[in-house]
Amino acid sequence: MAALLFLEQTLNGLQLGVTLFLMAAGLTLVFGIMNMVNLAHGSLYMVGAFLTATFAQWTGSFVLAVPLAVAGTFVVGLAVETLALRTLYARDHLDQVLATFGLILFFNELVKIVWGPVAIFVDIPAFLAGRVELIPGAPYPVYRLVVLGVGLAVALGLWWLIARTRVGMLIRAGASNREMIGALGVDIKRLYTLVFALGAALAALAGAMAGPLYVVEIGMGDSMLIKTFVVIVIGGIGSIRGAFVAAIIVGVVDTFGRIVPAQLGLPTAIAEMAIYILMAAVLFWKPAGLFAARA
Amino acid sequence: MLRRTILAALAVALPALAAQPAAAQQGVKIGLITTQSGPNAGLGRDMVDGFNLAIRHAGGRLGGVPTELVVGDDQFRPDAGKAMAERMVQRDRVDIVTGVIFSNIMLALSDTVLKDRRGVFLISGNAGPSELAGKDCHPNFFSASWQNDNTHEAMGQHMTNAGIKRAYIMAPNYPAGRDALAGFKRFFKGEIAGEVYTQLGQTDYAAELAALRAARPDATYIFYPGGMGVAYIRQYSQLGLMQQVPLFAPSFTADQTILPGVGDAAIGMFASTYWSESLGNPANQKFVADFEAAYNRIPSPYAAQSYDAAMLIDSALKATGGSLANKDAFRNALRAANFQSTRGPFKFNTNHFPIQNYYLTQIGKDEKGRLVNQMRGIIFSGHADAYASQCKMR
To answer: How far is B193 from chain A (nearest CA, A)?
Structure first.
């Protein structure tokens, strides 16, 4: 593979990686702190994308629509947590899978009822629609660079939140040992609700930015969800740092995994298997993931 | 007093009972199985709306007899589609099963319908797998749409005619995707610069498109239905490839289920098709105008095929006097295809698959500023599928 193509694919991999990180950060916190398997995380990604499309139509501005959609999904996250998920914390993982799978079906139908069954259109704002020739001979869409930038900024912001604020301290403690912080007098219910809604907001941001890039359709979160689970398993449940590192690795491996096997004459199916082979290899070496958070 | 009451009751009941047998024999019950949930729900919606419009055009009575339509969701799952077929055939006792968008679902339910002892007909409104066109053809199976390979064969022929030397071809990695590129290569005589199968449902094509650009093809041919198509075309345009490497696709990647989601990025793309919203024949003009008036959107081929399937059934029922009692007579009436198709000339081959024209279209804007397929010419006149010789029927 030519050096320039290699660079361009690396850039693609990084951009996919930060999108995965936005999804994985929320999911790993929910799994790590609340010990809950939340399959509906992909649905929150979808809701974020659809709300962005609608707000963009109403306000005429994509840049304005994104924070509105994130706020809207934050509220949806609050509602889902208090109404549907509160009773599930104490229950078996399998019960949680069943309930949150039901939420996936619920959200898919809800979106179909509100927005109709056909994919809807979200435009990249005109000032971001161009290309830059970062790599000679390979014009790269400005919008993808913006997604990459926003993802890295959010990663930095999350690091600051987790490492440097009181709330972050509570989150880290909760991921490490949930019972202990309850015994130390922290209001667990409020913390859980906050963490869940924060995860929803991050997923919504991922969906909002992905909409103009890919397609805004029913069930768009489901395939993203599978990759996200691979990321948090590789990175270690409950660890934001692990989610970031794993997301970048998975993004790059998936991108190259789709291109390299064909060049080596290997069967196409290998491309789809690349990240799962990676996950199996990591788990073989480190069963708890790269940066396990649990004490 | 009691005797008078009984006599009065009999006087009312007997005529009603006498009327029963005649009413029970007339009428046709049709089961339509399609995808109504998930990302492909838009395709199913067009199928149902197209069929209902045909029933309305026939005055609520296909072939002049009371028509009952039962619609079922296959949820894009072969097992659910098969279960739905079982329910319709055995519990609802439908006379005809139609619809079915996806080939894997069609192959899963075809036996359930075709092997039923009552002699139920299966008239496909979309899926046309090569098995049912060739070695597994069945007297009670008809395709009111096409055979899977045909639209791709047409574009392969056109790109050869247009003098394109090196083509880069891509499709999802599932049976219809593989059939598509096989059909394309059957008629494209240039060099294949790259043949790439991507994951079914994939929406990020950045990596594949970077590799495509590095391969420097003269043109690109893709088959990506539904959301995959929307995502691919948008990203192709975002990378600036639409101006450098012309994009060709079959109608499934360029119809009204895709164009609203893609937006202006699709302008300039070429498509091969058996039907387009711009075809000028009178049956189509009426269909498109009434569809837009009734449903407030431009129809896609899924709606047109479904409409044609209903009109085909209507024509056959008219020929048999509204009766399905004689299966052979009904089958011969179907074979005659004595109806005005929205696609123009239409007749059946020996394997019950259509022989029809294939056209070239290009995406542009109509006078109302909407994205439509604009006619650019005819590729094949009276094209038959490649599997008819393998069919041992009659």
So the answer is: 13
